[in-house]
Fold this protein.
Amino acid sequence: MNRSTKRERNCLIRSHQGWVEQDMYEVWASVKKAIGALTGEAGQMAQAIAAIGITGQGDGTWLIGRSGEPVRRALTWLDARACEIVKQWQEEGIAHEIFLITGSVPTSSSQSAQLSWLSAHEPEVLRDGVAALYAKDWVFYKMTGEVSSDESDAGHTFFDIQKFEPSHKVMELTGIPQFSHLIPRVRFSYQNIGQLKDDVASELGLRKGIAVVAGPFDIPATALGLALYRDGEVYSIIGTAAIHGMVMDTFLLNPIDVGYTIRFGPDGKWLRVMPTASGTLSLEWFFKVIGLGGDRNHINQRQGPHDKWCFAQDSEIRLPYSFEDDFLYRDIEIRLNAIPPGSEGVIYLPFIEHLGERAPFVNPDVRGEFFGVSITTSRYNLLRAIYEGIALAMKDCYLQMPREFTEAKVAGGGARSPFWMQLMADVTGKILKTAKGIEFGARGAAINAGVATGLFKSFETAMKSMEISWEEFRPTEESFQRYGRIFSLYKELCHALKPLWAKRLNLLAGDSGGNCGNSEG
């Protein structure tokens, strides 16, 4: 199988505190640029492409109007403007009712909450809209002219999980029944097929009429790409967010009022997902604010305990493990490995985004913390504490899975770090396996497209045809016991800080007249 990868960076627009949007035109332009680069590289071989599979970020709101053009910028899953609505739903028991219907707890990432916010603050946008799409749906529409979504995205937001059909009750609970027409037709991902438009095919150097298949979104697509379809299999994606999920033959709603329940891929298969809000995002923040920008010489000079670090507030920051040449981070991790488990008393709570946390609990008020900093704390202590904090949150999510398990597969940028993989195994006490390769979400979209177009007889056949080699990381008993004690303190901190996070938010709101993520600097 010939594989090639092209990446294009898209900007996140943060015009207000807590708002995180994307220009829909820019996203489409980036998609075209990446595909054009691939087809140019492939030459005549591009004409042999049988189908195009599309996946993308989940949640968010990508609105188009009667002309088929965007009516505003897209609200992404990181957007926090709806957090006050979510808190109100929690207090009034609405969030619980929604969970019992959909199997998924609403967060400020959820399209239902974002549409509710738009209904209150930008009603003209919804009146002008004809469809509330997701990221992959927008790209599918631009490629095919068809307006639709799939069961993985729309299903866990607006569908009755028992009947698996749109729920008018959910629309009523969220206060937007008048905008139910914005929910597009929903098809199973392996039936969500269109044909590439002639003008797009010509522009991209592809055959006219190629099948285009949209879905599933990135979380279930990665499960397909990792060939996970057996009941009880567990996986994690350590990307911008850290996502943890279990494959199920039947849906199980325990624990109540936390996580998503997603129908995906093979008939009768479900995912129980704990989608935390921060993964490598915390590392990106650290490199941007505290140090380590683009000058590798600062890392490789090895000047001793007072190494110079390249500060990079104003330069473009590369996400860790997002590129092939990641030796810079390996060099750092050699130093981190010399620090004992527990970062010499520093604990990091990885709640760094304005939306707070989505799993294994929903609380828009929470924020990141370094606990235990002293005069002798170094940058390396802080950085190791971040690695550990994300692993502690991972363990917290693993403890919320519907069933016991002993091993998990791990993908995403963070999985490319052997240091971090071993640390996560030591913290969770699980055998962790990372697949050799990249872009397993894209692989999952290709599998789905192959099934949809008849290239594969079934998902199981398709996944078995994919060769995956694994590297295994086993927990060490001494470190696991040490991290068990640290995890107990981590949980105590989360519990003890809950009322203080709320007081902090009230203080900020009083100072600025804002609320939730909108009042922060």
In short: The chain has a mean pLDDT of 90.
